Amino acid sequence: MEINKMWDKYPELKGDLEEVILLMDRNVKCKDKKIENSIKELIYSGGKLLRPSFSIIASRFGNYDKEKSRAVAAALEILHMATLVHDDIIDDADTRRGKETIQSKYGKNYAVYIGDYLFCVCFKLLATHSASLASIKMDTKAMEKICLGEINQMNSKFSLDTSSRKYLSRISGKTAELFALSFYSGASESGCSEKLSKMFFNIGHNIGMAFQIIDDILDYTSNDEELGKPAVSDIKQGIFNLPLIYAINENKKAFKFIEGKEFLEDSDVDIIMDLVYEYKGVDKAMDVAVKYTNKAFKLIDKLPENQYKYILKEVVEKLLDRTA
């Protein structure tokens, strides 16, 4: 089993993540081997396992119960995988983490069922391993926010009537919510106080916001191989990210050629890239990412003293200081 190299420095945490993967593997067994094998491909596809790692780190600030902690972490990663499968269907994506997507390999109909099955596995894990009712409620609330974020994104495609506020609201549900939930669930399920659990929630929110903004910036600074997915794919489908929104708000007339289109050609994207740099869209977006990053670190500094506080700090520094 290969775990992302970023965890090599933290053998205890890496061991937890290995057990999380094995737990996911055991819980996706079903009579339809095509479904089971396709999900196992996802499980072993080499993701960073950020959400389960954050959940486990937070759990180390309470009364750590390895069985429950790993089950909650596994449920969160399964939930994340379900959202990715459905995302790829909506985006008609061919690759994810450098590999063929479920919807590309097996078709959209099959991918829908796989995503739905993963949601079932998520709640099965929580129910089987005695997660609290409060945790399950938090999960359902997070799923609601994620779905609404996706709907908001779909409804705003190719719209020049956009703003940084609308974008931040969208990614708060689409990305940051699951980061926040991961921290909160790990802390809450290990018996941390509500005050500390909420602090972890806010840490996750700020990390998630910065992470998504940086991810969007990479569309303008990286290539397909570095990203593990097609660069500027969101832009081609009319999903306008923060660098582009800042540029549009500087000179909406320059982007009028976008209106009314259902898909952007490479030539359109070339023009957009030039305009985004002309109007300092990347620089402005990076300033926002830095603000969220700083908020996250200020909150991390307030956490109780233990070795995992410093592990978290190191991991977040690497995560938010990246080129790909």
Structural commentary:
This protein is mainly α and 324 residues long. It has one domain (5-320): Farnesyl Diphosphate Synthase. The protein is built from 15 helices and two strands. It has a two-stranded antiparallel ribbon. It is globular. The mean pLDDT is 87.
In short:
The protein has 15 helices and 2 strands. The chain has 324 residues and is mainly alpha-helical. A hairpin with a 2-residue loop joins strand 1 and strand 2.
List keywords for this structure.
324 residues; 2 strands; mainly alpha; Farnesyl Diphosphate Synthase
* CATH superfamily label: Farnesyl Diphosphate Synthase
CATH topology: Farnesyl Diphosphate Synthase
What distance separates the N and C termini?
23 Å
**How are the strands of the biggest sheet laid out side by side?**
1-2
Number of strands: 2
CATH architecture annotation: Orthogonal Bundle
Report the β-strand fraction as a percent range.
under 5%
Detail the poorly predicted runs: none
Structural class by secondary-structure content: mainly alpha
> Mind summarizing the main beta sheet?
2 strands, antiparallel
The domain tally reads 1
Order of helices and strands: HHHHEEHHHHHHHHHHH
Total of DSSP H or I helical runs spanning 4+ residues? 15
**Outline:** globular
Radius of gyration, taken over Cα atoms and rounded to an integer in Å: 20 Å
CATH class: Mainly Alpha
